[in-house]
Amino acid sequence: xxxxxxxxxxxxxxxxxxxxxxxxxxxxxxxxxxxxxxxxxxxxxxxxxxxxxxxxxxxxxxxxxxxxxxxxxxxxxxxxxxxxxxxxxxxxxxxxxxxxxxxxxxxxxxxxxxxxxxxxxxxxxxxxxxxxxxxxxxxxxxxxxxxxxxxxxxxxxxxxxxxxxxxxxxxxxxxxxxxxxxxxxxxxxxxxxxxxxxxxxxxxxxxxxxxxxxxxxxxxxxxxxxxxxxxxxxxxxxxxxxxxxxxxxxxxxxxxxxxxxxxxxxxxxxxxxxxxxxxxxxxxxxxxxxxxxxxxxxxxxxxxxxxxxxxxxxxxxxxxxxxxxxxxxxxxxxxxxxxxxxxxxxxxxxxxxxxxxxxxxxxxxxxxxxxxxxxxxxxxxxxxxxxxxxxxxxxxxxxxxxxxxxxxxxxxxxxxxxxxxxxxxxxxxxxxxxxxxxxxxxxxxxxxxxxxxxxxxxxxxxxxxxxxxxxxxxxxxxxxxxxxxxxxxxxxxxxxxxxxxxxxxxxxxxxxxxxxxxxxxxxxxxxxxxxxxxxxxxxxxxxxxxxxxxxxxxxxxxxxxxxxxxxxxxxxxxxxxxxxxxxxxxxxxxxxxxxxxxxxxxxxxxxxxxxxxxxxxxxxxxxxxxxxxxxxxxxxxxxxxxxxxxxxxxxxxxxxxxxxxxxxxxxxxxxxxxxxxxxxxxxxxxxxxxxxxxxxxxxxxxxxxxxxxxxxxxxxxxxxxxxxxxxxxxxxxxxxxxxxxxxxxxxxxxxxxxxxxxxxxxxxxxxxxxxxxxxxxxxxxxxxxxxxxxxxxxxxxxxxxxxxxxxxxxxxxxxxxxxxxxxxxxxxxxxxxxxxxxxxxxxxxxxxxxxxxxxxxxxxxxxxxxxxxxxxxxxxxxxxxxxxxxxxxxxxxxxxxxxxxxxxxxxxxxxxxxxxxxxxxxxxxxxxxxxxxxxxxxxxxxxxxxxxxxxxxxxxxxxxxxxxxxxxxxxxxxxxxxxxxxxxxxxxxxxxxxxxxx
Amino acid sequence: xxxxxxxxxxxxxxxxxxxxxxxxxxxxxxxxxxxxxxxxxxxxxxxxxxxxxxxxxxxxxxxxxxxxxxxxxxxxxxxxxxxxxxxxxxxxxxxxxxxxxxxxxxxxxxxxxxxxxxxxxxxxxxxxxxxxxxxxxxxxxxxxxxxxxxxxxxxxxxxxxxxxxxxxxxxx
Amino acid sequence: xxxxxxxxxxxxxxxxxxxxxxxxxxxxxxxxxxxxxxxxxxxxxxxxxxxxxxxxxxxxxxxxxxxxxxxxxxxxxxxxxxxxxxxxxxxxxxxxxxxxxxxxxxxxxxxxxxxxxxxxxxxxxxxxxxxxxxxxxxxxxxxxxxxxxxxxxxxxxxxxxxxxxxxxxxxxxxxxxxxxxxxxxxxxxxxxxxxxxxxxxxxxxxxxxxxxxxxxxxxxxxxxxxxxxxxxxxxxxxxxxxxxxxxxxxxxxxxxxxxxxxxxxxxxxxxxxxxxxxxxxxxxxxxxxxxxxxxxxxxxxxxxxxxxxxxxxxxxxxxxxxxxxxxxxxxxxxxxxxxxxxxxxxxxxxxxxxxxxxxxxxxxxxxxxxxxxxxxxxxxxxxxxxxxxxxxxxxxxxxxxxxxxxxxxxxxxxxxxxxxxxxxxxxxxxxxxxxxxxxxxxxxxxxxxxxxxxxxxxxxxxxxxxxxxxxxxxxxxxxxxxx
Lengths: 998, 172, 483
Hints:
heterotrimer; B: alpha+beta; 12% strand; C: 17 helices
């Protein structure tokens, strides 16, 4: 059996690694011939997951991950708890990386396109490499190797290869030049200048965690503040306590005003003077203030002043060494040379340059002028599509590599399964090409594969240890010497804080009366490299809540001025090009600017992405900031023209999920810092704002909630229902959700999709409200009844995020109405849903006040080989069946089995549902509420606790902890809501802007 | 008691003449089978028939239904106790609906059973309705006196005296 | 044999002055069973066509999944349940007329109850389709029945849907039985006059050999009365149970104690309307003026008026409570009903059910067949909308703001809605053609019996058809009851 041979080879490789990994992958061609485990490999217990340490390469953050594989197939990615960057957490992109691995539209093998006939054909690797070698040999001298930001061993290999074949190396790594490894977890004031550190800037998972550390409310009442400076509010900005929205280009003025404490510049910068004053006061009162930025979206042609001012703002210890954005002039030159026909051959292993480079550069045109175009891309992305040699590379989950994301961290990338398709990782291809060209690489030695090369490079250092741990971490418990080669290559290189050659104030090209264009990176798609993952497309954007689509953000006043409403298509025109996008009308962007997210508008890149949205890079000119050499992303003004095309017929056009205001439902509540401090001072067990409500309810005969309304342990099983196994047990699973920590990113949602085999329904079905998400993040701009609330300038000042999983109510309304007992209550307090019993009356969903039950309207497809990702521990549901969050019951049972085997009780924190596991800010606490010592019990009984819609007496097992605001929050349009007893509240513009709030 | 097969039939287009004949014949102690196109109380009075026992069936049926409903709902709930919505395992208020419906259902069905039993429906063969004539579902009434051959004359006389349009004799 | 006409002046029933004698009833009843015209066949063809349409649509549901409907996450119930409730409601008037009016001894019921009862049976037969159509896995619908299984799992008797199963099946069974029992003597009559041998054989079997002997009548009449006595509480319970499908839930707009009486009244309103909708054409086509007299329409109109007033009251009370309770969720839902996406549905329900029927206060309108027919159509439409308005906007605007989402009907649902009407009329038309549409035996009860000597009028109570005495007992039954 050929398969068997391959398996043995693989095991040999794995054996060397010493990580005790063993897995049998199978590529698509072999799947039908596979006879799994006639004699199982000794290290693999069928039915039990194997975890491999590796590193996420979806973005440059380099988060350490654990890759879960069942019988040789990767099913899920989770954070590596011992890793300094990820701390066991992940972001949505990391969770979705497995869909990159199993994406049905990946290249199945090498493709060569004869330049004369122009038809592509699939060839074997040997043929492909042979031809490439021949072509390169011919083009020797005028070869360019355009790559991403290689570090460590790969960087060395690339250099050696380039030298050997006579190629020049050029680097293009969009967004990857932002500082990683900063430390602001102890700051009490953050000032970010367009630095979207919760999304893409630097190291999002690490920074999200640090942000929660400094910003979330902790018992004892300390809580850092966060000021956002920029023309619009991306997710990070939305999490700020204060938004200084200054006129585009005047960021430096604001920075200086903060530093100097002189608010006189407010008018010049077009900032609300009171807001600026508040910020200044905060800055004055801060012990440690950290300034971040400017972000990738604010790279103007005059950043010097801003850089200096920002650097000056740091007080009480900067977050880390100042860095300078990467100098992209080589890329510009390269483009010009290509245009001039001076490049004979180009190898591309960068992030889709055709898509990510500014349209003004006309890179695609230039590339076509290069006779030999070799792409290593795994996907038919916009670049690969116009290359005539495609040598598809492995997904990082199929590759060996090392990677140095930040000083002191050297990650190891380890394959968790055999390649799904007939692909090879770039290192292997380079070695083999070089060898075919007869070139010798100095340090390659006998290395035939990149794996050998890598191990050789690590010679002497603690390879085994690194494989086990997932890398080498300075200051780690057992810190080991990193191999010289890698340690040298820690990027980005820190630069001295000396001001760069001075440049003037930022200037904007284009129509002077136009709107400043803000092109900002996407949390879901980064620069577009993850835009073809169905989960990420299905996940509504954390801010706009738009799934499967792209938009241009315009301010309500702007919309009024040009006479459009949400969904109307606008032509956005710059000197360099124009794109058409539907308008998203909201006050989170200045009225003299428009914001467009990167990441959509691919011409290729797979079935789900092709032709979806539009690419804002087309609008940029490709000018370079003389000071830093970075592309100017923030120097263009555009004009808007309604195309007259509206939202279109029903279920077409832009779709915004959910609503913007709470209609007084008070599902997502907040409390002012002053108030909660007051309550905490008086001890636990108070439910702010609820006391009178309870009295009121007691009045209504027959309907009396428990005294301790935040204790889900109480009242279950309800008196009279103790029976058989239902006598009050020792376990009652419950969850606490801290809204003060939630940043609304949606990593939990994607983790839930990955863990529970939740199908993706696609744009049209989503618009019908049929998305199957078990855990949704709700986002509210207003709390009251009037929709206008969501459109005032201050509407985004108190944004509420609310993760909404199944509440597992004690008195679950969904259960008694099911005629076939498909919905019932388990003895350990779960609200069980038995798919096999369900006949699909949908009564349970109708009767669920939280609307967390979702119905399988069809039998949904998992396009081969995406179905390889399915979690074998979870049923795949068929049409006509109701489903919902189960608190990851499969993980609960796994924990219970383990405990039973060891004859003990399940420990607190031993059972970790997927959402809890993924959340980078540790919003969720899960455990047994019956154990008063458990974390969840302690969290649930704090003064911030409340239960959604608790007046319905459903007694949910999910307890929310109120968001803590610096101003006096409104929880409904009812003005009396703000309780009088709350102590001295800080004056903030939000409070001032909402007279009803006092 | 099993009635005689033989006898004489009188056909009456009028109700009053028919009832006269019935009274007269009963006076002579004949057993009768009376045909009517529609139920008329005059006939029942003349026949002096006792109250129909169908109601017994209805009553027992209804009570059986109630019991069945209670038993079904309660036992099945206890057989595999599952808590739903924090409600009691035996939630009588909810079960009352089942009890009621089964009361009606079984009550009705047993009533019909009673009817068929007592009225000897469906019937086969003529013995239940000797000398039946199609016009009895139209406009005519019929009075059949079960009598031995030797008393035919008397019966014929009584019938024609009462005003029978037509007197037919069973010649079996 | 010759049936001589009485010498003296013929006494006529004040209800059916144009009916001379018993035989005429048989003749007229037979007339309905004779060869149908082209119109009939056309109607039947249309009905069957619609049924086929429904079958095609339902196959889509089964094959592709319920996604073919317009249902969505917050709005789990739509046209299917609406139509289910609609048809169950229609059924009620039939039982009201055949059972309740029977117990009240309303003699004007005799000539129309057969139609009404047939309507009931077929309406419930139609409604019974929908619980199966609307569930996600119809092939498992039998899991709702209390059948022993190797899984030892019984249905959940706390679920209103299971109450539904019991209520509807019981209602279907009992009303069918009641219908058939009542038919037996008339089938016998049809048998005795049938010429077509095939028909004769079938009728002979169906009539169970009924001969109309004193024994048969004696037990028949009692059994019939007890069935009526059982059917009466049943009919009131069925729509109450259906209403509890909603009232037992916690959905704002559903969770109301008024629902049971509200639904029953609504059911009777829609049912009576449907009776009229059916009666008028039949009346016209078969020329049944002798049996469907102005008195009958007058009584029906009053019934319609009464129930319409009750329903109108319920509407008012709902809105009053929504306002008076101060309950946020309740208020929003009711506001949405009349101002939301389906505001026109909300208003047509209020207008057609509460206001339009008020026209019937005017005797001229209520005795004008065309006007009455038109009004009945309006009420039918209004009552369908009532159910829709109760179901959809409530779900679209329940507690969780994030899931405010509306519902849009698809061609599949539309086809199944139409198909349900096809299905109903198919059965009704077949009934007209093959079973006695007039209750021969019972109409004779309200006719003066043929008498030779003394005045037949003595044997039949004088009934002033126009006055309230119309509800007074007629001859046989009060006597029997007084036993």
